[in-house]
Amino acid sequence: MQKKELRSKYKALRSQLSENDVETMSMAIANQLLAMPIWDKTYFHIFLPITEQKEVDTELILHLLSGKDKEILISKADFETRKMTHFLLTDNTKIKKNEYNIPEPVDGIEVPSNKIEVVFIPLLAYDKQGHRVGYGKGFYDRFLGECTPETIKIGLSFFEAEESIKDTHDDDIRMDYCITPKNSYNFK
């Protein structure tokens, strides 16, 4: 399937999920992460979910990271430049939803992309080669391009992998892993 078709398919599938489905599957994803070889790292970037889009609820992952004394980073998107700025999540961080209902930090301590060791990536669909389909604005493609080659890229999805995405590009940055409620895909 093409990215455009996959976007439509997975937006429709997510829209059918109940609040309870989202909560239960998000918990299963957080539990799957405990077995991942990432816990020796320090700087973790995580997305705050757009609840209206029924994205994976990352609250439990935030609790895991906090309980393991990790440095947690969240981003603010600039829709003109299509770039993201990353801020350290602290007790003083004020979160506000932007015009697209994305929860973002108002301000804070900025951290450069090349310092981030693990990135949890929101997505709509992905394939068995580690290619992902997002909302199509390219924010994460730009962001992942700024990270070091050693940065571990982990997609989070309620659904299993597609066989392949037809319209990928050579410069697409593939994920290293994708975690679902039932499986951990390793693309390395």
From TrEMBL:
The keyword Chaperone does not apply. Its EC number is 6.3.3.2. It catalyses: (6S)-5-formyl-5,6,7,8-tetrahydrofolate + ATP = (6R)-5,10-methenyltetrahydrofolate + ADP + phosphate. Pfam families: 5-FTHF_cyc-lig. InterPro entries: FTHF_cligase, FTHF_cligase-like_sf, NagB/RpiA_transferase-like. Its cofactor is Mg(2+). Belongs to the 5-formyltetrahydrofolate cyclo-ligase family. Keywords: ATP-binding, Ligase, Magnesium, Metal-binding, Nucleotide-binding. Substrate binds at I50, E55. GO terms for biological process: folic acid-containing compound biosynthetic process; tetrahydrofolate interconversion. The lineage of its organism: Bacteria, Pseudomonadati, Bacteroidota, Flavobacteriia, Flavobacteriales. This is 5-formyltetrahydrofolate cyclo-ligase. It comes from Flavobacterium gillisiae. SUPFAM superfamilies: NagB/RpiA/CoA transferase-like. The keyword Magnesium applies. ATP binds at K3, K4, E5, L6, R7, R132, V133, G134, Y135, G136, K137, G138, F139, Y140.
